[in-house]
Design brief:
The protein is mainly alpha-helical and about 475 residues long. Helices cover about 45% and strands about 5% of the residues. The strands form three sheets. Strands 2-1-7 form a three-stranded antiparallel sheet. It has a two-stranded antiparallel sheet with strand order 3-4. Strands 5-6 form a two-stranded antiparallel sheet. The protein is globular and about 65 Å long. Bound molecules: fe (ii) ion (2 copies). The site of one fe (ii) ion has 5 residues, from helix 3.
Length: about 475
């Protein structure tokens, strides 16, 4: 581990002068981007952050006060496996690729650029949230997520610089030029152009959209292109905290709402009504489902065949790693009706991965409903049907209700305000967002966490303002 190099890394960067020079040229541009688009108003503050100083189980989470622009971003890959093999597809069992297979160069670069683009995008989406944090604990968690998304950008930029030559370097530059929500140079994926300007959005985003990241990274962590697999494996260790922030954040909002329901009218008492929480779930869950791509996809089949993108837990969950002979039954819209269609399993792998994601999200819903039950509320939250409010794939261009029934566009438009956040809902939530900067204090619309970070109490001064 070369921790004290200008770019901390465990890839022996100093032995590859050309790559080192290229990345050192990119570094100041990255820092400019961070200062321009990173958390607004807090760059000079000491934040109690974890920094990766080793990829081993002990050392990767070192906690101390850091000013964010001085955070040690770096390039960390899981150590190589001796005798790594391609784990699935047509080249199953052959030695893992150490270089990009020629015929998949463009496709693989696209995957890496698309993943890489999401990392700075989310930092941009969240850059104003510090000004309305519900507590110092939450403020610290926001910044932790932000600096780590910055590091994930480094991970993808390392792959682009290291394995894709000139066009990889151009793509790495472009990653710092696009801007979330900018009509002229938007981020690539739509979920990453949506505003994330209140904390309910932030928690739903980290719960649902970061969780998409977990599943994409998990599929790439199985890759036969070994540098990609090792990069993604290490990113996943950090990603777990982001989902924790969203999952527990929404759980704490549910707890507070249920407590206020016992006292009277939630709105009058300054809480977030369950109907609004449900609408935010509907919004972010549906946008996050789109991130998995089309239900029927020849790209997914090609990537699997080539051994580049596997299934979730490909090695642990499956014994047949070729997936060439099985079929998958899909529900599609044909002549204005829902019908089933058999497709080859390899063409359905986006949908298979989406299914794993949905199962994982359901566990989150069960946790929040348990909180509601504990607080004596009889209402329950739920996930909308995966066909609801989709903009990508088989269901895009059709309209469905929350149960997945095909409905007319007129009916959808008429009932949309029951299902998705309205302007008034968003304004109401925003009206509750006032900063709480005193250690140990918390905003009225959310319950405190069950525990602090890394053994520190909730009252700890997580950010020195
Ligand atoms: Fe990330
Ligand atoms: Fe994340």
């Amino acid at each position: 581990m070369n921790l004290y190099d200008r770019i901390p890394n465990n890839v022996n960067l100093s032995e590859d002068k050309k790559l080192q020079r290229a990345l050192e040229k990119w570094l100041p541009n990255y820092l400019d981007w961070w200062c321009e688009m990173g958390p607004d108003g807090f760059q000079e503050k000491d934040v109690w952050l974890r920094t990766a100083i080793d990829v081993g189980s002990e050392g990767w989470a070192h906690f101390d006060y850091v000013k964010m622009p001085e955070y040690r971003w770096g390039i960390f890959l899981e150590p190589p496996q001796p005798d790594a093999r391609v784990g699935f597809g047509d080249n199953y069992g052959r030695p893992a690729y150490q270089e990009v297979p020629g015929e998949f160069r463009n496709a693989l670069r696209r995957i890496i650029v698309t993943q890489g683009d999401t990392e700075p995008a989310s930092v941009e989406q969240q850059r104003q949230l510090g000004k309305t944090c519900p507590s110092l604990y939450d403020l610290r968690n926001l910044f932790q997520v932000n600096v780590e998304e910055g590091r994930h950008l480094w991970a993808m930029v390392y792959l682009l610089h290291g394995y894709f030559g000139r066009d990889g370097r151009d793509e790495a530059d472009a990653l710092l030029e696009r801007r979330s929500g900018n009509p002229d140079k938007p981020r690539i994926l739509e979920a990453f152009n949506q505003p994330c300007d209140d904390w309910l959005n932030f928690f739903a985003f980290t719960m649902f959209t970061d969780r998409d990241g977990k599943y994409q990274l998990s599929a790439l962590a199985e890759s036969g292109f070994e540098p990609l697999a090792r990069t993604c494996k290490f990113m996943l260790t950090e990603e777990a905290h982001h989902m924790f922030v969203g999952d527990t954040g929404l759980g704490r909002v549910c707890r507070r709402t249920a407590q206020l329901m016992k006292e009277g009218d939630v709105r009058e008492l300054g809480g977030i009504p369950l109907e609004i929480i449900q609408k935010y779930i509907n919004f972010w869950f549906s946008y996050s489902l789109d991130l998995f791509g089309g239900e029927i996809s020849s790209n997914s089949a090609d990537f699997f065949a080539a051994g580049l993108k596997g299934r979730y837990k490909e090695q642990d969950q499956y014994s047949d790693h070729s997936a060439a002979s099985e079929n998958f039954t899909m529900t599609v819209v044909e002549d204005g009706e829902l019908k089933t269609r058999e497709v080859g399993l390899r063409n359905a792998l986006n949908e298979v991965l989406r299914g794993e994601y949905v199962k994982d999200c359901e566990k989150g819903l069960a946790r929040w409903n348990k909180v509601l039950a504990e607080e004596g509320a009889s209402e329950r939250l739920f996930l909308p049907h995966p066909r609801f409010h989709r903009h990508v794939g088989e269901y895009a261009g059709h309209t469905f209700d929350l149960q997945g029934n095909l409905i007319s566009r007129e009916e959808f438009e008429r009932r949309k305000s029951e299902w998705l956040p309205t302007m008034e809902d968003r304004e109401y939530v925003r009206s509750l967002m006032h900063p709480v900067y005193e250690a140990g204090k918390i905003a009225n619309w959310i319950a405190p966490p069950a525990a602090g970070i890394k053994g520190k109490p909730f009252e700890f001064e997580y950010v020195r303002l």
